[in-house]
Amino acid sequence: MEKFDLEGREYVALCDLMKLASLCHSGGMAKTIIADGNVTVDGEVELRKRCKIRPGQIVEFDGQQIVVE
Q1: CATH of domain 2-68
Q2: pTM for this entry
Q3: Which residues are paired to 68 by β-bridges?
Q4: Which of 8, 34, 56, 62 has CA 20 to 30 A from 46's CA?
Q5: What is the pLDDT of residues 22-37, one digit of tens each?
Q6: What CA–CA distance (Å, rounded) separates 33 from 11?
Q7: Which of 68, 69, 64 is nearest to 23 (CA)?
């Protein structure tokens, strides 16, 4: 499980988080992966590309977990 620091921000959009946390190479790729139902947030499939990810939430894709702090 890796950690992602919001660095003072209240939230980060799911598609941006995937790119910033190096879960994918581009924002466009992140949006496609999310739309295909391949990403979970707190154990539930998330289809909203701009979903606000806040501290304490866990994002999972392809066996990798990111916890947001």
Answers
A1: 3.10.290.10
A2: 0.93
A3: 4
A4: 8
A5: 999 999 999 999 999 9
A6: 20
A7: 64
